Structures are given as C-alpha cells and as structure tokens.
C-alpha cells in the first residue's frame, strides 16, 4: 500500500511540475457549476493528459520510472479525477450553494471524464491522434444523443454527454474505461 502511495505521489509531483499552468487554468474552468458548459473543458483536460504525453513521445520518461502500463493508466486517471473532483466541489460550494446540485454535477463530470479518458487512451493505443479521434467521437456522441425525442432515443440514456439515465451512462463509461485499460496494458502504445 505504501509503495502505491509513493508511486502516486511521484506521479502527481511530475504532473504538477510539468503542467502547472494548464492545471491552474483548467481548475478555474472546472468551477463552472453547469455541466453542459464544462464538457468541453473536461474533454480538453482529458485529451491533453496521458494521451497527449503518448502522442508527443513523452511516454518513455514515465515508463522508465518503476511504473507498469497499468500503473500509469490508473495514476493518470486518478490525477484527472482528483483535480476535477476538488475543483468541481469547490466551484459548486462557491457558485451554486447547493450540495445536491454540486454532487450531481460532480457525478456527471466523473462519468464524462471516465468515458473520454478511455476513448483517448484507446485512440493513442491504436496509433491515432490524441485529440482528433476523441473529438470526432465527442461530436458524434453529441449529435446522435440529441436526435429526436429523448424518451425514444436509446443513445440519449447512456451517452456520456447527455446521461439520460445516470447509472446506465456510468456503466458504459466504466466499460469504455476498462477496455482502455485492457488494451493499454496488453498492447502498449504505438507512438
């Protein structure tokens, strides 16, 4: 357990050292209390994390540390979730004043981040771009989930952007996340 905490601490220090400015700006943007407004900033934060490091050939420094692929995947996700959770909760405490709205906003944000983290890592694991493919998935997701009447459109229920049925969207997000973990751990990266 203490070994895991030491690894996590080293990873967090590396991320804060390399990406301090980006983290500060996104932290302010994550305080926006409306999930629909926050989606694009959450998306950018996810795709410019580990997926960007892999795409820009900065992954070798991570893997040279005593981290396995699985460790890197999970620590990067933990880092993203920590930043999003802390700043979202702070934002909802400051701006909305409602604990219920803050928790609902946080859950929606975490579902979205979980799904698109998996999508971005799957994209770079197969040698594609860290931004283009996930952005295309985001556009298709946004369009398809908003076609027609929400009660009739099944994609509306489990889409990470609309989250018509929260628990169903969470299950789909976790499945995408676990698929990304499996592929990243078994296949490695192409870049």
TrEMBL record:
Chain ranges passing through the membrane: 23-51, 72-96, 102-119, 164-184
Keywords: Membrane, Transmembrane, Transmembrane helix
Lineage of source species: Bacteria, Thermotogati, Thermotogota, Thermotogae, Petrotogales
Protein name: ABC-2 family transporter protein
